[in-house]
Design a protein that fits this description.
The protein has 362 residues and is mostly helical. Helix content is 72%, strand content 1%. The protein is globular. This is Dipeptide transport system permease protein DppB.
Length: 362
Amino acid sequence: MTTASPELGQFEQQDRDALEVGTTATTAEKGRVLVPWRFFAGRAGFYLFTLWAAITINFFLPRFMKGDAVSSYLARNRNISPEAADSLRILLGIDTDKSIWQQYIDYWAMLFRGDLGISTLHGLRPVAEVLSSALPWTLGLVGLATIISFALGTVGGAIVGWKRGSRLDALIPITTFFNTIPYFWLGLIAIAIFSSTLKWFPSSHAYGKGQSPEWSLDFIGQVITHGTLPAVTIIIASLGGWMLGMRNMMLTVLDEDYITVAQAKGMPNRRVLWAYAARNAVLPQVQSFALSIGFIVGGTIVMEMVFSYPGVGKLLLDATNAKDFALMQGVFLVITLSVLVANILADIVYAYLDPRTRQTEA
């Protein structure tokens, strides 16, 4: 029976320390994970201030525009009496008899009650009801397509970066080329080829004409069929950015000492790739993905116009043209909340993936 010499044990400890330094794959302290309360408290204060500023801008911005929602509504409905128009202004919170400060206070009171106002563009329906009918379409199509694009681009970029110098490098210029094509042009090409010529997919709308939304296999099949072409277009158009970013970060991470030590210790390449290299390289991708969440809700106007797809993007465009203040504010509020929630989740994921954040703030 043999025992390891003190010198050998010392060298093994040095190799272990060299592997752990600089990598986010190890915990900051063995046995327990320190919760970075100061970090979360500071971020919570920042996001609360950002939410207040966004809601304040959301209140004042539509009021700086020319015209108002009532004037636009009267232009579409000429049989409204002046008394009814005045009542409508009071109902919409744009009563000229109230000061702008009182309107601001009333707006906050409505938000705390969960009341987003009424939409003049949609027959005086509650804004919350209008948004609830449009938001699922945007989240279901653009949200799912963005997540798939992020996953494929991140995994593909990690593999291309790991096998640098191989034939897989050709994927970068190909995907980047599609990323430079304007989305509306790519969508029109997809419609011309796969809808008009090959007749594989419908060219517009979220389901067949004359159908009404219902939970049935036939309707779900129609939604999938109508959503495939715009979803694939979104994935192709955004894949290049995710793949290029991940590949460049992988090239930087692979030159770190802890990667060299891990390979020298005989670790399997798959473990070195995913547990050490990719886990560190993905950190900037997480932040970029959080920023892209806002575009899932608000950046879909072009897609929804090209494919005549119902969603929040087209809703915002129609509300702006009609000067429907309440609906505009509701859409802006949804966009603001989605971006803030996405960034909060990104901070949590970042703190989980990078123990150095917990070390610094704990």
